[in-house]
Design brief:
The protein has five helices and six strands, in the order E-H-E-E-H-E-H-E-H-H-E.
């Protein structure tokens, strides 16, 4: 699948758990036509098990934000995402939610393990043809 070129992001609708859902992104696209839309952070395990990656073509440009702490599942999730035509993949290293940090041991907790973050970014890049340009983090 050929990747379409979009303007550099001057405005993005940031990923927010339980908010930047498929329905929200469809509504958000009506307002800023050229903004980059992000999915809410989706755990790699959720992608592998439930394959919850669909979105409408009007949402482009769209970025998939993946979270996770298992390199094998991150690789599988990235491969599954390829078929959906995301324009970019973003690795979450900043979600402070207790649901993410405590249960899944990822999100902001990954800032304690920069070696793993580097490995995860490499795994994502090796398994996709779209840019893996940044990771969300909190300072």
């Amino acid at each position: 699948m050929a990747v379409q070129e979009y303007r550099p992001p001057q405005f993005s609708v940031a990923p927010m758990m339980d908010w930047t859902t498929n329905n929200y992104r469809t509504l958000a696209r009506l307002i800023p036509k050229h903004a980059w839309l992000y999915t809410e952070m989706i755990a790699a395990e959720t992608i592998v098990i439930r394959k919850v990656l669909g979105f409408s073509s009007e949402q482009h440009p769209i970025v998939l934000q993946i979270g996770g702490s298992n390199l094998e599942n991150i690789a599988k999730a990235t491969k599954l995402a390829n078929a959906y035509g995301y324009d970019e993949i973003n690795f979450n290293c900043g979600c402070p939610s207790p649901r993410v940090v405590g249960h899944g041991c990822f999100g902001v907790r990954l800032m304690l393990d920069p070696k793993f973050v580097g490995e995860a970014m490499s795994v994502i890049a090796a398994n996709t043809g779209v840019p893996v340009t940044e990771m969300q983090n909190r300072h």
